[in-house]
Amino acid sequence: MQRILSYLIMILITSTLLAQTEWVKYDGNPVMTVGSNGSWDDDYLLYPCVIYNGSEYEMWYAGDNGSGSDQIGHATSDDGIDWVKDDDNPALTGSPGEWDATGVQASSILFDGSSYQMWYHGIDAGDVHGIGYATSYDGVIWVKYSNNPVMVLSQTWEGNEVITGPSVLFDGTTYEMWYFANLNNLGIGYATSDDGINWNKYENNPVFTGTPGEWDLFAVKPEVIFANNLYHMWYTGATQASPASGTWHKGYATSDDGINWTRYADNPVLMCGPEAYDSLGIWESSAIYEDGVFHLWYAGRPSSNSTINYATSSTVSVKNTDIVNPNQFQLYQNYPNPFNPTTSIRYELPVDSNVRLTVFDIHGRQITILSNRVQPAGNYTAQWNGIDISGNLVSTGMYICRFQAGSHSKTIKMVYLK
Description:
By secondary structure, the chain is an all-beta fold. It has strands at 11-12, 16-25, 44-52, 57-64, 71-77, 83-85, 103-111, 116-123, 129-136, 143-144, 163-170, 175-181, 187-193, 199-201, 208-209, 218-227, 230-238, 249-255, 261-263, 281-290, 293-301, 307-319, 330-331, 343-349, 353-361, 366-375, 378-384, 397-405, 408-416.
């Protein structure tokens, strides 16, 4: 990577915000198909989960050979389109006699630069579902948490059979999870955790439900990311709860807090068909936001042998004429995190302030100064590209960003990947 002088970009964002536009399916879909006859994944592929680790894309996905016992495979790609499955797949399987004996499906993966965390869907012999947790240092060899499952049915609205499809984010302090439950009245719940293991469900769950009489009477399979200071959720909706009945499309919603959601007015944003590879439904998905583009990998249901497909959507500036200054000092978690090559750090000033935004390493040594000047009240974004104050590229690892404005001070943790 070319080493350049650190650039500091301070952007006033009181007049515009970013919004999703039309999705375009990749002409070469599907980007991943079932394995050869006799292999562990020769029947169908579901639940893609994709991350970028700083050098390549990695995908975990559920596969089955017709036995009805899903297992989790791993694949890598340089471009997110041409995928190579691991020779040693599957990477994670159910444990005989345990809560996940009948099958496992990867649903959410986080990578901090040195280790991986997985939240996965497990099914026991009685067809009761739960959410488990596992860790790995290479993304291939996984260690399940000894006290799995980490989330089970416990709230009345969840019913007594299904809790699945977790989508997890971590802002450096708190883990957030969105999941769906209840086969008879499907809805999406929300929970938080300090460690990714012990979860507190939101008392007013569900936070998102289907719309009576509309295309998304049943709303399931949430995929949530945080980008442009906003939560974005893609969900699967249909008029029938059973995947074998009706057609399933992809809807979109946004939220300021991850709890109160606003549906996109022109839903669904991604419809199944007319292509053969997703002619009967668009199911689970995984999203990444890079350089102004949303990337979506999704399971498509053709007449047989569901596959993994790919689509993209750009963003545009939308005029906002109702400009309101913040009412308090605020520093938000950087995005993306982990990052390479650049991350954005948003903060808010309720009054004119002398702002100092400084990056330190974990030993307290100053790495660079992103801002040290008086700024008017408003919303700002600083960008850091991993360059220190001497113009050198920093090493992979965790860094601390400290925000000081008047007497107010706050820090966030950021992870840089080479």
